[in-house]
């Protein structure tokens, strides 16, 4: 079986809700990432055999197969197909898995895995909200409700609080982690560690007007964040809660992508690989606590790969809520100094369907900067799932 290699990885800088990317149609945002991947590899666009794009809010401007629409809005020829993937927050990480599986099988040689989400223009939960307004029902079917009789609706907010209680994480610990995310992200941005991975884009504001400058820095980073300021933010769950908006991921607009090839694709493109896909796996877990899946998923992935936690040089664990990476550290015994070294979604934003390849982009570039060998990425996903990807820097 062939190997799967990442030869290019790029992302937009995150835009806050109503912020510097809010005037971008998500199709055009995704198209710019596709064009950037082609430009970075100097690839013949006709060699790309598929575009697999993660997107959670597949409604409105992100409906009608956003992947194919992004291809048609890009410089790629019409011969390049596209398909859209929804594995909730892990959508573009799953797109990467699908792309790697395609090139490893030999059925394709060059595939782009990407993700896009404009949470300004297609707010979180839009598909369900539109269906409810139209009287079209909800995702909790009678049998699903019967299987989980005490659950009115699966909730990430409930799951995040359940994790904080289960792993005995105090508000003070959660707030301190949030501050660390901002400090690490600010330090990385100031040191230029994101420059290679970020695709500069002209600012387009929500009203449609151009901002007159380029967007090159993640808009959610608060370099002046303080523990006192974070501690003053209202709790999400007032009665006994421990998490606030300050210790949760930021709503974000953004797009990201990686180009994945096999040995034949390497020869056709004439490029050197950045990384090799070493392991891929998925895991299903309790949908009520929901966000806990990365913990057993990581344990199983390492076992299947014949590795230990000490073998991994850098970790990217999505900061959906601070309780997730902190519980993950507790369960795995990983070195905290190797986790989310450039900050995470609490500071950088979580553009849902784009976060999978966004995290992989940051991980690959960080491995090169720090001369690490192995990196592991995982993230919690709606419905109680997790993807795990281990890559080797080349």
Quick overview:
It is an enzyme of class 2 (transferase). This protein is α+β, with helices and mostly antiparallel strands and 394 residues long.
Describe the model.
- The chain has 394 residues and is of the alpha+beta class.
- The protein is 35% helix and 20% strand.
- The protein contains 13 helices and twelve strands.
- The strands form two sheets. Strands 1, 2, 3, 4, 5, 8, 9, 10, 11 and 12 form a ten-stranded mixed sheet that branches. A two-stranded antiparallel sheet has the order 6-7.
- Strand 3, helix 2 and strand 4 form a beta-alpha-beta unit.
- Helix 3 packs across helix 13.
- The two termini are 19 Å apart.
- The model has no long low-confidence stretch (mean pLDDT 97).
- Residues 272-393 form the Thiolase C-terminal domain.
- Residues 5-263 form the Thiolase N-terminal domain.
- It is an enzyme of class 2 (transferase).
Global geometry: globular
SSE ordering: EEHEHEHEHHHHEEHEHEHEHHHEE
Q: What does the average pLDDT come to?
A: 97
Measured as a percent range, the helix fraction is 25-40%
Q: Tell me what portion of residues adopts beta-strand conformation.
A: 15-25%
CA-atom Rg in angstroms: 20 Å
Q: What's the number of helices? A: 13
Uncertain ranges? none
Protein name: Acetyl-CoA C-acyltransferase
Family: Belongs to the thiolase-like superfamily. Thiolase family.
InterPro entries: Thiolase, Thiolase-like, Thiolase_C, Thiolase_CS, Thiolase_N
Enzyme class: transferase
């Amino acid at each position: 079986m062939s190997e799967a290699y990442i030869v290019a990885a790029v992302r937009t800088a995150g835009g806050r809700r109503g912020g510097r990317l809010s005037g971008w149609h998500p199709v055009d945002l995704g198209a710019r990432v596709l064009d950037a991947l082609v430009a970075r590899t100097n690839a013949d666009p006709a060699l790309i055999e598929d575009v697999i794009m993660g997107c959670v809010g597949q409604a409105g401007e992100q409906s009608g197969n956003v992947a194919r629409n992004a291809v048609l809005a890009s410089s790629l020829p019409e011969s390049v197909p596209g398909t859209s993937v929804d594995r909730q927050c892990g959508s573009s990480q799953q797109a990467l898995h699908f792309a790697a599986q395609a090139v490893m099988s030999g059925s394709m040689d060059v595939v782009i895995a990407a993700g896009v989400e404009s949470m300004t223009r297609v707010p979180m939960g839009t598909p369900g909200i539109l269906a409810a307004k139209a009287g079209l029902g909800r995702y909790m079917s009678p049998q699903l409700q019967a299987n989980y009789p005490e659950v009115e609706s699966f909730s990430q907010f409930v799951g995040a609080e359940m994790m904080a209680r289960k792993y005995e994480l105090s508000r003070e610990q959660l707030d301190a982690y949030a501050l660390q995310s901002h400090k690490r992200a600010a330090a990385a941005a100031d040191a230029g560690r994101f420059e290679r991975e970020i695709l500069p884009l002209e600012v387009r504001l929500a009203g449609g007007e151009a901002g007159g400058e380029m967007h090159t820095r993640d808009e959610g980073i608060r370099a002046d964040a303080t523990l006192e300021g974070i501690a003053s933010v209202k709790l999400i769950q007032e009665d006994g809660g421990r998490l606030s908006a300050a210790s949760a991921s930021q709503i974000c607009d953004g797009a990201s992508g990686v180009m994945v090839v096999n040995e034949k694709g390497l020869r056709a493109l004439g490029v050197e690989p950045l990384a090799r896909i070493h392991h891929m796996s998925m895991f299903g877990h309790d949908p009520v606590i929901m966000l806990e899946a990365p913990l057993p998923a990581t344990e199983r992935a390492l076992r299947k790969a014949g590795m230990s936690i000490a073998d991994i040089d850098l970790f990217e664990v999505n900061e959906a809520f601070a309780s997730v990476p902190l519980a993950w550290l507790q369960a795995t015994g990983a070195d905290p100094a190797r986790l989310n070294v450039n900050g995470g979604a609490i500071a950088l934003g979580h553009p849902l369907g784009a976060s999978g390849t966004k995290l992989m982009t940051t991980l690959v570039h960080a491995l090169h900067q720090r001369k690490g060998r192995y990196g592991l990425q995982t993230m919690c996903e709606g419905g109680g799932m997790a993807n795990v990807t281990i890559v080797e820097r080349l």
